[in-house]
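Our collaborator T.R. sent over the components below with a one-line note: 'Predict the complex.' Nothing else. No constraints on interfaces, no templates requested, no preferences about which chain binds where. So this is a plain run: every listed entity goes in together, and whatever single assembly comes back becomes the starting point for the next discussion.
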Amino acid sequence: MNEVVQYLDNLVTTINPGLDMPVPERHPCQKQKSEIRDDQQDYIDLINKLQRHTRCSPGYCLRIDKEGRQFCRFKYPKKIVEKTFVRDDGHGQPELVTARNDLYINPHSRLQLQGWRANVDLKPILSIHAALQYISKYASKAEPRSAAFSDILNQILNESQPEDPLLTSVQKLLLHSVAEWDISAQETCHILLGTPLYHSSRQFVILNLSNEIPRWIRGTGESEKSPDSGRTEKSPLVAYWDRPTELEEFSLFQLYLTHRLVKNRWKECQKENIVRIFLRPSPLREGPQWEDFCHIKVLLHVCHRDLQQLTENETIAWSTLYNNHLEEINTDPIDLLGQPIGNAENEIVVEEEEQLIEDDEEDEFRFDWMFLAEMGLNPSFNCSSDLGSRDMDRNHDWINDPRQRYNDTDLRDIDTFISSDSRISTEEENLTVDYQTLNDNQKKVFNRIESHYHDVLVEHQVEPLRIIVMETAGTGKTYLIEAI
Ligand SMILES: [Zn+2]
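Returned assembly:
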């Protein structure tokens, strides 16, 4: 082991021979070769200028541990070590700990450092595991994330001259965005290990119905390795038109829902596919995309062999075809595009009505007296109530229930109870009220209400009247109210 350690000490060191020396003012890398006279001083300058990990920064090496403490991920500052030794790193792998007299110095080789003249972190490889770890770490390193599209455009515009033609900027933008290549660490690992980048329990089928050109570029990234990936293939619609006669009864949607075209033959799938369509026109009836909407609906759900036959050589509009085949279209179990929505005019009216209702609901809570105050002459009241005819009213034992609650004396007086109760005086009800007899203050209130009522009668728009009459007992409030 001594020999091994000796050998490693020759390769790599963490001893600073100029521990007390200052950091050189002039960068040693700026020196011409002829300026370097003292070889030892040059080595010390290089170490103190660029071989010490003295500036930890959040963007580079600082991390936060579980207790919320900051630490340097390279574990600086490190402990002083008397003599070089090799130990188990805790995972069964050998780890070299070199003799160290400087808390911050990076491991290096003097010869290499003085030749290379830049910061290095040198580590001898002690096991095959370390070699593999090193390779895989760099092979799976993620690229820095590319800038957003708008940022790229902004940068290009900032660098361009006002008199430059617009085309130049657009070309640059195109070049930038085509050349951008974002690949995450996870994607890299998947590619290296040969595992697929995605997995799904269902097949997705995307029907691009934007155009009926007969051939499409075959896509890549399909789970079954397709040898003619990148070549042209029949468009989904043409493939449907060319289906064999035993699939005659399938609509375009049904066929792609249940079948898959493999090597030019339709194979039934074990599970239904998830069919997505590209181009989703607005379902607004008679709206600007109504013909397109009908077009896609008919293509998807009406069995056909070619467009000439379907449209009778383009003499029938898609909307007419849609109406003619409505039943057939609506029988297909899954409706990808949804049903059309009203017609354009009705739609807007409905929206306005909803808007009005919402506005009303936003008003503050209104008390009953507010409604009553606004009713004006001959109001019609909605008095409908099921009180007395509800099950609980009908099932109630009206005869025997009072007998259980009141004693016989009370029950005997039941007929005369109201008229004989001293607390309820009928005196005031019979009071004759003459508003001529009101005093000045009472008259003020009376006149105010009278003029308000007059305004209501002639249907002036008036705010509801709110009056509080406050006085001590016996000043004539009740008399005033009676008069009113
Ligand atoms: Zn650090």
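Summary for T.R.: Confidence is low (pLDDT under 50) at residues 344-362.
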